[in-house]
Amino acid sequence: MAIDSRPLKISLNISDMDRHYYQSHNFTLAMHPSETELRVMAKLIVFALNADENLKPSKGLCDADSPDLISEDYSGVINHWLSLGQLDPKWLKKASSKSEAVSLYAYGGNSVKPWWDKYQKDFASLSKVSVWQLDETELTATLPMFAKAIDLQLSIMDGEVHINSEEHHAVVKPIRLK
Known about the structure:
Layout: E1 6-16, E2 21-31, H1 37-50, E3 55-57, E4 69-72, E5 78-84, H2 89-96, E6 102-106, H3 112-124, E7 129-133, H4 136-140, E8 149-157, E9 160-164, E10 169-172, E11 175-176
Parallel strand pairs: 1-8, 5-6, 6-7
Antiparallel strand pairs: 1-2, 3-4, 4-5, 7-11, 8-9, 9-10
């Protein structure tokens, strides 16, 4: 855990009807000092959408060459590299040389469209890379669920993620850009 990182206890109960994946994941997430609560909630949604037995948080913001989430097998082969934000395709090309699959989840409200318009052609040549957009308004609806200990029920069906805490509910539907 990075110096000055804020430890968050995470408990996710995932029911993914689209992939037939039903599992609980409990882990500690190091929240980087520059990381926002919105970004943490986006990371948890991305975790649920891509969960498998080997998926875990990576160094993320603490290391510019690391993804936010990573799934690697027991021999160290990277199966899935997952990042958040509006990244340069050159960085993801480098990531795709290290991983079997790379997924980018862009968010940021009105800034996503100009970013996508600028880089869409560059992403077209990256066969291992998929790009998704997370709606800012939908993500913002998850903020009341943020706490030092986050306990969420996530149900995924027809591409929609229903997120429930003890007191709140939100729905996020990622949009595939590539």
